[in-house]
Amino acid sequence: MVSSEHTVPNASALTGWYKSSYSGGDQGECLEIARGHAVVPVRDSKAGSTGPALLFSSDGWAAFVGAVRDGRISS
Asked: Which has the closest alpha carbon to 49: 3, 26, 15?
């Protein structure tokens, strides 16, 4: 179970959301990231602004993105 300190139940409390330039099409697999916070908030674009967000440390998010880019994590 994820600790509540690593989630925000309503992402509308955060600002600065943007969708990755790698997201596109109608496949519904888009994440949005919010800039300007001490942590890296990430939400599912399908959940809308009132859905939950996960909070990652900067190092944790960089490790995740690197693993995806390097093919160590795939869909």
From this structure: 15
